[in-house]
Prior knowledge:
Number of strands: 0
Distance between the termini: 29 Å
Order of helices and strands: HHHHHHHHHH
Largest sheet: none
Number of helices: 10
Mean pLDDT: 82
Number of domains: 1
Low-confidence stretches: 1-17, 113-117
Shape: globular
Helix content: 55-70%
Strand content: under 5%
Amino acid sequence: MQSNDSRLTAGNFPPTRWSVVLRARSENSADRSRALDLLAVAYWKPVYKYIRLKFSQPPDQAQDLTQGFFLELLERDLLSRFTPEKSRLRTYIRLCVDSFVLNAIKYAGREKRGGGTVHLALDFSAAEGELHTQAIHPASIPSPEPFDLFFEKEWIRSLFSSAVDDLRGHCARNGRQTAFSMFEAYDLSDDHPSYAQLAERFALPVTDVTNKLAWARREFRRFAEQRLRALCSSDDEYVRESKSLFGGTP
């Protein structure tokens, strides 16, 4: 699965017509396939973890259900029913997951749908490791609402994780590995060093550390905003989502 799009690395927000929702509704099979790719990158971990916790599914079943869900999104053209005026895309996706999993459990004895025509290369072991690190148990979640909040938080985590990957690749291609290393050490670490410690580690003045971190943070936000923009079906939806995630004016 390719996780980047040329329109996401051009330095500008991708135009509305290339949003994942409109891609999924396209008559062009390549655009529809690209929509699945974008959706999977943004949502597969939240979907998998949500299925594991809310429906108490073992890892192998949750993996099959996750694969099957994204196949169903295309087969049944579920995004054609999405109306951004009524809900956020991530809310709609979550409700679709609920419906899909409940039906799958109800008809568990039937032959699996899809015949393996679509298979996404997803790192389920990494997602499972994150679940164990989070130490969340279904019994500790007392009502349905926290599951909804859990899904939203995992979606945000997935979006930002993809933006970090974008930044890492951007720095590697442009000889800015030092800036990424500083960003990783300071902004992504639970025990981040001081600017003075980073300056000593990289043998640079503190002013250079400040500038490099400022640049890396700007680029990180740019990549995060670009990925968010590709997942919104309209400018209005993007503005709402951006304010929710970043605050202020996008």
